Amino acid sequence: MTAPRIPITILMAEDDPDDRLLTQEAFAECRLDNPLKFAVDGEQLMDYLYRRGPFVDEAAYPMPGLILLDLNMPRKDGREALREIKAHPELRRIPVVILTTSKAEEDVVASYKDGANSFITKPVSFAALINVVQALGNYWLQIVDLPAEAAGGKA
Prior knowledge:
This protein is of the alpha/beta class and 155 residues long. The chain is 38% helix and 14% strand. A five-stranded parallel sheet has the order 2-1-3-4-5, with helices on both faces. Helix 3 (78-87) links the parallel strand 3 (66-69) and strand 4 (96-100). The protein is globular.
């Protein structure tokens, strides 16, 4: 018998407030109960992961079990953040799904080279976004077995 899954926290790095809101609404529409946290750029993403500044409270800002990462953000873009995450011995275990408007082949190739676990081009309609969120939920939150620490357990 399989133990019940503890909902992992999902951290989305996205600078566009409309995209953040639509993603939040798509999660609600898909009835995904996972906590969804946001960072507005790559610097804030890294502050969250390193527990700097306003993100020191582990109860309020749990370590994510999955990161959704936009490539094109101010201050530190997603490319730089991805390389930093995958170079860090403790952060590299967190799956990173690129969710971006880019369709450029060089972005796809570079993202996988730098350690991305998936690359998804953002859909243009809300209905298509719901399909993407459902697929993400099915795969990353139901099918895949993630490390126990991704759900707040101990490794």
